[in-house]
């Protein structure tokens, strides 16, 4: 996931792997391996160098702001749904029973 994010940001800046490697002071083979998912756990020092070279914060490097916004919207939707259920008188036990029934229904669909 971090490799995909680095790749996206690198392309946005129109940097080649060689150019990013030179700017960050890291091996281009290492960036290539991260981007292709061959290596998936880069060091903090590597991430700091790459973030600085790409002109983004560590947070923006690690977390895709678009995905983060979508997750927050989904969380708000779930929260609103729960509040609506509570306001209509649905108890926690009723909700649990519904979930269990739904799981059972999905498992026995065949």
From TrEMBL:
Domain HTH cro/C1-type: 6-61
Residue ranges that the Swiss-Prot or TrEMBL entry lists as coiled coil: none
PROSITE patterns named in the record: HTH_CROC1 (PS50943), SIN (PS51500)
Domain Sin: 65-103
Keywords: DNA-binding
InterPro entries (alphabetical): Cro/C1-type_HTH, Lambda_DNA-bd_dom_sf, SinR/SinI_dimer_dom, SinR/SinI_dimer_dom_sf, TransReg_Diox_bact_type
Source species of the chain: Paenibacillus cremeus
The name this protein goes by in its record: Helix-turn-helix domain-containing protein
Cited SMART domains: HTH_XRE
Pfam families assigned to the protein according to its UniProt record, in alphabetical order: HTH_3, SinI
GO CC list: cytosol
Transmembrane segments: none
Highest taxon, organism lineage: Bacteria
Molecular-function annotations in GO: DNA binding; DNA-binding transcription factor activity; protein dimerization activity
Alphabetized CDD domains for the sequence: HTH_XRE (cd00093)
